[in-house]
C-alpha cells in the first residue's frame, strides 16, 4: 500500500506516543526541567576561556583506551578508537587510535625534510615550505590496522567494539598526490617499487608497488582541516587508501624508488599470515569489506527497556563503497537491510542504522557488509576454513553481540 499523507501523519502520532511510553515527554513533572539549574542563573565562560576548544566535561569518559596486557610496554603499543561513542563517519582528531613502534615522535616542521631518492632522474629534498607549493587534494579515507580484530581469530575475547574493532579511524586528509612529487623527481623505467620511511626512532619502512603510489596515494599534512596530530605523524604522513594501516608511514621523511620490494620487518615477520599448511600469505595490502554494530554493544548497553530501539554501526571496504549492510537480531536466521546514512565515499567508513521495536527478549546482533565489488563480509568460520587459526591479521569476519534481557551486551561468536 502506498502511504498517503494521512496515514503518514497517523504513523507519526503513534510514534510520538510510543516515545512518551518509552520515558520521554514528562516535562512538567520532571524536576530537571521544572527547576532552575545553576547554568541558567550564572553567566557562562567568556570567549577564549579555551583558545583551543575541548569537549564538554560531561563527555570526559569518551577516550581512546589501551588494553594493557596486549603489548609489553606503552611505547611500542596501540590504543583504540571509542567507536561506540561516535556517530556519523568522521573520527575526531583527538580520538583517532594510535599505533607506534617507538612512540609518537615530536618533529619540528622547520627541521623536517622529505627526500626522494633511488631510481630517479633527480634526487630531491623538500622542506615543508616547498611542499606547500604543490597542488593539493581533499579525501576522506579509513585507516585500519591489519591487526584490527586479530585477538578474535580463535574465538570471542574482548568485550567492546572499541577493543574488537577500534584500530580504525576515518579522516578527511588534505595532501599532495604522491604522483606529483614522484614526477618532480622523475621515475626511471626500472623504478617499480617505493620504500617509505618514517622519521621516528623505529625508522619504520614499507615497500609499496609503484602502481599504487601513482594511483591514489597522498602525502598528507592536514587531518579534518587542521595540522596532523603528533600521534598521526605530524607534520607529514603517507596516505595509502584502502590498504593496511602499517603502510601509512607517519613522520614521512624518505621515499626511495627501487626495482623490487625490500622485504623489511613489517612485510615479512609482521603483517604476514601463517596458513595451516605452513605457507604464509604475504603482501595482503587491501582491506576486505567489514562492519560492526557499535550500538548496542558491550560498552553501550540498552538501558531503556523494551520498545523503540536504534541500532547503529559502521562498514567499510578497501575496494570501494558500501552500498548495503544487512543486520540480524537472531544470530543470522533473519536478515534485514539496514538504512545507510551520510556520504558514501570510496575507501571511507559508512554509517548504517536499523530502527526496531525491541520485545525485551535476548538478541544475537550481527551486521554483514556488501561492498561495491559485490563482495560479502564472511563469517569467522568461513575465514578460518580458508586461513586456519594461526592468523592475526585481516580478520574481517562477522561480529556477534549477545544482548541480554537486562540490555547488557556481551561479545560472543555465532558463525
Ligand atoms: N613511522 C611510523 N609509521 C607508522 C607506524 C609507526 O610506528 N611508525 N605504525 C604503523 C601502523 S602499524 C599503523 S596501524 C598506522 C597507525 O596509524 P595511527 O597511529 O594514525 O592510528 O601507522 C603506521 N605508520
Ligand atoms: Mo598496524
From TrEMBL:
Superkingdom of this protein's organism: Bacteria
Start and end residues of each Oxidoreductase molybdopterin-binding domain: 104-262
UniProt cross-references to InterPro entries, sorted A to Z: Ig_E-set, MoCF_OxRdtse_dimer, Mopterin_OxRdtase_euk, OxRdtase_Mopterin-bd_dom, OxRdtase_Mopterin-bd_sf, Sulfite_DH_SoxC, TAT_signal
E.C. no: 1.8.2.1
Molecular function terms, GO-annotated: heme binding; molybdenum ion binding; molybdopterin cofactor binding; sulfite dehydrogenase activity; sulfite oxidase activity
Keywords from the UniProt entry: Metal-binding, Molybdenum, Oxidoreductase
Swiss-Prot/TrEMBL cofactor(s): Mo-molybdopterin
Alphabetical list of SUPFAM superfamilies matching this protein: E set domains, Oxidoreductase molybdopterin-binding domain
Residue ranges of domain Moybdenum cofactor oxidoreductase dimerisation in the record: 282-399
UniProt record, GO biological process: sulfur compound metabolic process
UniProt-listed PROSITE patterns: TAT
PANTHER family, per database record: SULFITE OXIDASE, MITOCHONDRIAL, SULFITE REDUCTASE
NCBIfam families named in the record: sulfite_DH_soxC
Protein name: Sulfite dehydrogenase
Organism: Meridianimarinicoccus aquatilis
Primary gene name: soxC
Amino acid at each position: 500500500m502506498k502511504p498517503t499523507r494521512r496515514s503518514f501523519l497517523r504513523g507519526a502520532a503513534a510514534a510520538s506516543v510510543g516515545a512518551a511510553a518509552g520515558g520521554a515527554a514528562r516535562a512538567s513533572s520532571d524536576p530537571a526541567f521544572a527547576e532552575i539549574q545553576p547554568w541558567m542563573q550564572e553567566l557562562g565562560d567568556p570567549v577564549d576561556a579555551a583558545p583551543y576548544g575541548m569537549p564538554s566535561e560531561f563527555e570526559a569518559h569518551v577516550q581512546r583506551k589501551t588494553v594493557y596486557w596486549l603489548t609489553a610496554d606503552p611505547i611500542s603499543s596501540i590504543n583504540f578508537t571509542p567507536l561506540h561513542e561516535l556517530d556519523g563517519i568522521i573520527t575526531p582528531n583527538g580520538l583517532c587510535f594510535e599505533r607506534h613502534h617507538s612512540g609518537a615522535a615530536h618533529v619540528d616542521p622547520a627541521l623536517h625534510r622529505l627526500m626522494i631518492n633511488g631510481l630517479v632522474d633527480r634526487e630531491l629534498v623538500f622542506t615543508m615550505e616547498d611542499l606547500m607549493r604543490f597542488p593539493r587534494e581533499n579525501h576522506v579515507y579509513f585507516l585500519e590496522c591489519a591487526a584490527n580484530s586479530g585477538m578474535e581469530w580463535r574465538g570471542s575475547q574482548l568485550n567492546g567494539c572499541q577493543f574488537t574493532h577500534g584500530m580504525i579511524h576515518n579522516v578527511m586528509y588534505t595532501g599532495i598526490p604522491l604522483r606529483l612529487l614522484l614526477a618532480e623527481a622523475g621515475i626511471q623505467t626500472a623504478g617499480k617499487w617505493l620504500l617509505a620511511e618514517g622519521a621516528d626512532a623505529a625508522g619504520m619502512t614499507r615497500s609499496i608497488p609503484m602502481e599504487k603510489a601513482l594511483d591514489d596515494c597522498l602525502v598528507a599534512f592536514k587531518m579534518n582541516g587542521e595540522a596532523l596530530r603528533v600521534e598521526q605523524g605530524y607534520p607529514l604522513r603517507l596516505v595509502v587508501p584502502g590498504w593496511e594501516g602499517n603502510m601509512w608511514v607517519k613522520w614521512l621523511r624518505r621515499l626511495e624508488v627501487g626495482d623490487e620490494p625490500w622485504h623489511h620487518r613489517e612485510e615479512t615477520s609482521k603483517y604476514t599470515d601463517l596458513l595451516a599448511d605452513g605457507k604464509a600469505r604475504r603482501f595482503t595490502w587491501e582491506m576486505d569489506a567489514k562492519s560492526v554494530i557499535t550500538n548496542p554493544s558491550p560498552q553501550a548497553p540498552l538501558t531503556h527497556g523494551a520498545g523503540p530501539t536504534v541500532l547503529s554501526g559502521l562498514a567499510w571496504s578497501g575496494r570501494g563503497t558500501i552500498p548495503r549492510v544487512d543486520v540480524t537480531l537472531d544470530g543470522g536466521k533473519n536478515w534485514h537491510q539496514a538504512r545507510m546514512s551520510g556520504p558514501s565515499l570510496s575507501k571511507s567508513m559508512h554509517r548504517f542504522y536499523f530502527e526496531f521495536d525491541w520485545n525485551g527478549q535476548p538478541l544475537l546482533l550481527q551486521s554483514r557488509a556488501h561492498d561495491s565489488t559485490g563482495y560479502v563480509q564472511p563469517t569467522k568460520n568461513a575465514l578460518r576454513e580458508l586461513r586456519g587459526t594461526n592468523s592475526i591479521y585481516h580478520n574481517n569476519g562477522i561480529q556477534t553481540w549477545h544482548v541480554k534481557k537486562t540490555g547488557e551486551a556481551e561479545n560472543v561468536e555465532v558463525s
